[in-house]
Each structure stands twice: as structure tokens, then as C-alpha cells.
């Protein structure tokens, strides 16, 4: 049990996320997803969570473990070509995770996603929250363009709206 992590999670609430991602930032992120999805057949979702609930926190749940739960709950896996991607941010830990469905993950792999997460985390450390997420959306899209290029009008299978959990 990491006492400092518990304290950080207890002190981080939805308002902290709303300060970092005000309405105009969330709209810019939604617009970036919508624009990116016009260039490929993939589906991108962004979710940010202020902190973990006490029980998962006490059990030592990691951002990675939580992101996989969110991926499932948001049904990001439910795309025709198995190319859905979740960009997840656990705000209290300042930890980005990318969870990709098996179709696109087979092409990129864990190391490829980790490079993108590190870029986003670097922007985050510089207090460039919106820019960091948009950087991640663009980087994820580069992989989707390569492996699932756009073909005319692409169906939007998943909502582009960012989610605050």
C-alpha cells in the first residue's frame, strides 16, 4: 500500500480534472478525434478519471488495470474491424494508458503505445493538458492511417465525445 498515492487520490477530485480540461479543451479533444477519424477507419475514445475509488486503490489497482476495465465498459472493443483505441488518463497518477483492440494492437504492440503515452505524459508535466491529449490522438491516428486507411465516408461506430469518469 502506497500512502502517498492514497493521499493524492483522496485529494484529487472531478474539479481538478475540470480545471485541467475545461469545456473548451474537451471540445477541442472531441474535434481532434472527429477530424482524425476522417483519415482512417479506426475508432478513438478518450476518457479521464480523477482518481480511483478507495477499494481499488487499497488493493493497488494500477492505471493499466483500470484502463482495461474502462475499455470494456465503454465497449471500445465493439468495432467491425477490431480497431478501437482508448486513450485513458488517471489524473491523480498523471498516468496515460492506451488500450487497443486486437486488430490494431497486433500491428503496433505494447511498446508502440508506450512511446505515445510517454509523449503525452511529457506534455502533461509541462501543464499542457489539452495539447498532450491531442498529441496522443494524432500519434494514434498515424498508426491507424497506416494499417486502416480511410476509404471514402468512414462509419463512426463509437462516440467522439471525451468522457469524464
Automatic annotation (TrEMBL):
Stretches assigned to coiled coil: none
Location of the TPM domain: 26-141
InterPro entries cross-referenced by the UniProt entry: TPM_dom
Domain of life: Bacteria
Pfam families reported in the protein's UniProt record: TPM_phosphatase (PF04536)
Name assigned to this protein: TLP18.3/Psb32/MOLO-1 phosphatase superfamily protein
Source organism per UniProt: Sulfurirhabdus autotrophica
Lineage: Bacteria, Pseudomonadati, Pseudomonadota, Betaproteobacteria, Nitrosomonadales
Amino acid at each position: 500500500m502506497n500512502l502517498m498515492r492514497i493521499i493524492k487520490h483522496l485529494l484529487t477530485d472531478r474539479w481538478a480534472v475540470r480545471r485541467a480540461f475545461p469545456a473548451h479543451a474537451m471540445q477541442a479533444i472531441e474535434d481532434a478525434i472527429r477530424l482524425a477519424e476522417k483519415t482512417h477507419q479506426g475508432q478513438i475514445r478518450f476518457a479521464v478519471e480523477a482518481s480511483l475509488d478507495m477499494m481499488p486503490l487499497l488493493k493497488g489497482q494500477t492505471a493499466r488495470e483500470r484502463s482495461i476495465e474502462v475499455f470494456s465498459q465503454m465497449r471500445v472493443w465493439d468495432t467491425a474491424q477490431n480497431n478501437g483505441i482508448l486513450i485513458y488518463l488517471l489524473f491523480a497518477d498523471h498516468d496515460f494508458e492506451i488500450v487497443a483492440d486486437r486488430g490494431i494492437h497486433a500491428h503496433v504492440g505494447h511498446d508502440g503505445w508506450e512511446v505515445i503515452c510517454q509523449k503525452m505524459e511529457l506534455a502533461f508535466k509541462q501543464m499542457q493538458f489539452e495539447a498532450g491529449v491531442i498529441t496522443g490522438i494524432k500519434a494514434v491516428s498515424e498508426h491507424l492511417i497506416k494499417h486502416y486507411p480511410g476509404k471514402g465516408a468512414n462509419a463512426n461506430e463509437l462516440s467522439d465525445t471525451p468522457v469524464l469518469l
